[in-house]
UniProtKB/TrEMBL annotation:
Pfam families: HalOD1 (PF18545). InterPro entries: HalOD1. It comes from Halorubrum rubrum. Residues 6-67 form the Halobacterial output domain. This is HalOD1 output domain-containing protein.
Length: 75
């Protein structure tokens, strides 16, 4: 699932465990929109948003980048 992979990627970038993140993702991006993108049939989309001290980009082809570094894939 994209949302789980995204949370894991952010945790990896912060060198912590997902359940220890001190960021509420829904305060920075719509988690409902992320779920809709995960179900999208095409892979020609990109979602980018900022968190405190980090920039996150998700690409429909399966890449999750945090601060322009590939952290995880999904799909």
């Amino acid at each position: 699932m994209l949302l789980d992979s995204l949370i894991g990627a952010i945790a990896d970038a912060k060198d912590t465990e997902p359940d220890e993140l001190e960021v509420a993702l829904e305060n920075y991006v719509s988690t409902a929109a992320i779920r809709q993108l995960d179900a999208h049939e095409r892979d020609s989309w990109t979602l980018q948003f900022d968190l405190p001290n980090h920039s996150v980009r998700i690409v429909g082809d399966g890449a999750i980048l945090v601060d322009d570094t590939m952290e995880r894939t999904f799909g």
